[in-house]
Structures are given as C-alpha cells and as structure tokens.
From TrEMBL:
UniProt organism field: Marmota monax
Protein name as annotated: Ig-like domain-containing protein
Keywords: Cytoplasm, Disulfide bond, Phosphoprotein
InterPro entries in UniProt: Ig-like_dom, Ig-like_dom_sf, Ig-like_fold, Ig_I-set, Ig_sub, Ig_sub2, Obscurin/Obscurin-like_Reg
Residue ranges constituting the Ig-like domain according to the UniProt record: 25-103, 117-195, 209-297
SMART domains noted in UniProt: IG, IGc2
Cellular compartment(s): Cytoplasm
GO-annotated cellular components: cytoplasm
Amino acid sequence: MSFSRWLPALDRVPDLCPSLLYPEPKVVFAKEQLARSEVKTEAGASATLSCEVAQAQTEVTWYKDGKKLSQSSQVRVEASGCRWQLVVQQAGKADAGEYSCEAGGQKVSFHLDVTEPKAVFAKGQPTHSEVKAQAGASATLSCEVAQAQTEVTWYKDGKKLSQNSQVRVEASGCRRQLVLQQAGKADAGDYSCEAGGQRVSFHLDVTEPKVVFAKEQLARSEVKAEMGASATLSCEVAQAQTEVTWYKDGKKLSQSSQVRVEASGCRRQLVVQQAGKEDAGEYNCEAGGQRVSFRLDVTGGCCWGW
C-alpha cells in the first residue's frame, strides 16, 4: 500500500490544527504581576509575599527553598478572592531565602531579605527591668530612645495606655517616662515602651508600704484650742529615726516663732503657739507616703466694749 497520497494532507495538519499539536498552557496567575519579586523586611517584623491567580477557585502551594510550607504559628497563608498571601510573622534571619507560590506547573517567585532593624532604643540599657513601688507612692518606668524625635507608645499587659490623672507620660530629650501616681495593686503587671517594632519592657511589683506610724493611734483626730492658747498636734511613728513633714491645708509648714516642731523618741509634735482663728484648719503629719491627719478648731475670743 502506498501512503504517498496522504502526504499532502499530513503536511497541512500543523497549519490546520496548531492548538492540537502545541496546546497553549492554561494561565494560572494573573498576567499583570511580576514573575519574581524582591521583598525586604526588618528582623522582628512581619513579611508578606503576595500573588494573584487568574481564577478565584485556584488553590496554590507555597514553597521556601524548594520545600513545601505548611501553615503554623509562624507562617500564615491567606486567600481573598484571587489574591493569595504568605505572611511570615516576626521574621528572623532564618526566614530569608527563595519563596514560590505554585499552581498548575506555574509559579510566582520571591526573594525575601531579612535585615537588622534600625536601633530605636539606646543600646546601653536593659531590655527588661524589674521595678518595685510601695502602694500609695509613685512608680516611674524610664527608657531612652536613640533619636530625640522618636515617639513611643506605652502598654500595660498588652493594652495601650492613655494619659490621665493617674498615668502621666513624659518626654525630655531622648528620655521617655511613664509615671504612675499613687500606685495600687491593680497597677502591678507587665509594661512596655514600644516604637518601630522594638520595645523595652518592665515588670512592676506594687508592695504594701512599710508601716510608718504606730498602729495604736487614730488616722484622724479633732483638736480644739482656745484663742491665744497653744495647740499641740501629736502623733507617733513606728521607728524613732523616721523624719516627718507637717502640712496645713496642703502647704508645708516650717518652724517659726509661731510654729514649733518637736521630736522625742517616736513622738512627733507640732505646737501652734498663741493660736488664732487663722490657725484653724486641716493639718497632716506625713512620712513615706503615709499620714496622720488633724482638724484644728480655734474657739473663744472676746470683744470688750467700754
């Protein structure tokens, strides 16, 4: 049998049916993206590799240095419509390398470079500090940034802190401070000062204050004195060496010809001589963030008419 009569027809096959002999591969990835991308991230930050498929139902597989990646606490795979993302959380030097997003024999490639972060905080300080404060006293958490213009955010137990009457945020040059006024047990916990993905952390322990005043006395007393007579306000400290400060209506008192401060053993006294109406008011004896209070009432006084 001769096949010569079929040869003209066979010669025309490539012209008539090129798609049968050389089919075009199905497009898996959207065409408007780069086939290879360079991605940079700082150590400790997240890195996101992103590609787009042509059909929303397409499933992709991610690889690093030729090895298939599985989702974990460190690596998260996300899909939304036609967009696929690989999120490498808290990237480290070990995460640098070649990545690919593959489906249907096609791929989109990435090179991830993980660099050392720019220093935000001054290097001479500890990254974690233990701070102790007595209940009722102020607690100051302090750190130093490398650049004076750096803005920081303070957190307690992972929650952002805002300035208020209890919490004061201070900045002076490169120093950043968080001041907790009249700290209580509820203020104990873990704090952090954060900027640029970096942090300095603190653990604050709030302890019961050391007893300053002897326990067998009233925390507040009413004292009466007649006009022109002396008035004595008296309290007792727990330790003889304790120094106290006296206040009237919130203002510190100094010894004078009118006011005498006395100390004998554990006893502390304020003597107001020749008391007048202007000496009436609220008095405090204070030490170590604690106080004993007094209310002085000056009575009497006669107006003589002739």
